[in-house]
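Structure first, sequence second, as always.
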């Protein structure tokens, strides 16, 4: 189908590129791309692909927009807080380019639905922020023979590649055969991220998608691009397909999707109330702080910068990173309540303390976020 006069005006700067031209723009228009996630990476990916004239964009997400997203997830605005991210993203895409067809998959990508969702698309782009979905996306793409345009970000560093065994390159498992232990790699919510970083990595991913659609240039297949924003340096690592890879190797043993939560060592959330065994609620914490006669010690194990942002009055700080050399400041005979931002680091701290003989250490479920939600709304959330 020929380009309309409106499309010719819209894509004129593409059309005058010899590497694109009318034929290349038609290729872009006929390409179907699925973006897994509409967060920091998905925002620039979707916006630039829409502006470039990709024919069909699929969006997979199940989350809602939060204020903390706005620092980097530029596809969403202040007025979108509380709305489903897919709805907000579609509005932005249509305002950029109403010619683009958008299909929404308002769901979590799972082993049960991944193959059906991915199958109709030509290219998949990974905008996820967790290991189970990352391995799931990779495995589904390999099984279906789809290129997987990968990107990840953390603090000031990012990386990007294209995993495509069907085109002679490695897959994500060739680079990372096993996921890190649960909690070993902090999320952006715990470790932070420079707001512009996902824009840089996301634009690299969008560039790779357009090159794949055009069949032009030297793609990142077989290469891992590393970026350090503080040093403003790019490095490149050569990647080779692992002949022993259980998914894309010479003798694959992985022929179907698996339980990725289990593979990544993530235990299902128990269907019981907190307050048992090694965990207490923020209401238990408030009771301990209000009644000194209970003789319960409370400790905050976040970092000093976080403590400066928000803290619970009267609770001392011993950062988790300093706990191995400072735990002797605590009384092992006392009941100790440990809190962090959301309950992840406090569980690690409790496990460490128990190994040192602290039999009565307990993690505060939900951390200071739950405290702000349920006890004291004047404590800011971050």
């Amino acid at each position: 189908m020929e380009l309309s006069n409106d499309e010719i005006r819209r894509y004129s700067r593409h059309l005058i590129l010899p590497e694109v031209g009318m034929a290349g723009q038609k290729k872009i228009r006929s390409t179907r791309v699925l973006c897994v996630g509409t967060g920091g990476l998905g925002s620039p990916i979707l916006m630039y692909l829409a502006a470039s004239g990709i024919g069909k964009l699929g969006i997979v997400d199940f989350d809602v927009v939060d204020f903390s997203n706005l620092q980097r997830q530029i596809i969403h605005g202040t007025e979108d807080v509380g709305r489903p991210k897919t709805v907000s993203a579609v509005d932005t895409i249509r305002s950029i380019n109403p010619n683009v067809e958008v299909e929404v998959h308002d769901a979590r990508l799972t082993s049960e639905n991944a193959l059906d969702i991915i199958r109709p698309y030509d290219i998949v782009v990974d905008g996820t922020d967790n290991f189970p979905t990352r391995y799931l996306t990779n495995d589904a793409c390999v099984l279906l023979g789809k290129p997987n345009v990968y990107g990840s970000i953390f603090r000031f560093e990012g990386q990007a590649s294209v995993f495509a065994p069907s085109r002679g390159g490695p897959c994500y498992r060739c680079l990372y055969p096993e996921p890190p232990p649960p909690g070993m790699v902090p999320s952006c919510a715990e470790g932070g991220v420079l707001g512009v970083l996902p824009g840089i990595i996301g634009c690299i991913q969008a560039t790779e998608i357009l090159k794949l659609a055009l069949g032009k240039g030297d793609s990142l297949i077989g290469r891992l691009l590393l970026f350090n924003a503080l040093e403003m340096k790019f490095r490149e690592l050569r990647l080779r397909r692992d002949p022993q890879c259980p998914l894309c190797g010479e003798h694959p043993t992985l022929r179907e999707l698996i339980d990725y939560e289990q593979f990544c060592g993530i235990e299902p959330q128990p269907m019981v109330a907190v307050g048992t065994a090694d965990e207490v609620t923020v209401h238990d914490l408030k009771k301990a702080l209000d009644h000194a006669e209970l003789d319960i010690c409370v400790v905050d194990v976040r970092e000093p910068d976080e403590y400066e942002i928000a803290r619970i009055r009267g609770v001392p700080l011993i950062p988790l990173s300093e706990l191995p050399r400072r735990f002797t400041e605590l009384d092992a005979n006392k009941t100790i309540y440990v809190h962090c931002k959301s309950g992840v680091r406090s569980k690690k701290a409790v496990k460490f303390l128990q190994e040192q003989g602290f039999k009565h250490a307990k993690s505060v479920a939900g951390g200071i976020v739950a405290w702000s939600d349920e006890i004291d709304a004047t404590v800011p959330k971050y």
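Margin note: The chain has two domains: 31-263, 279-374.
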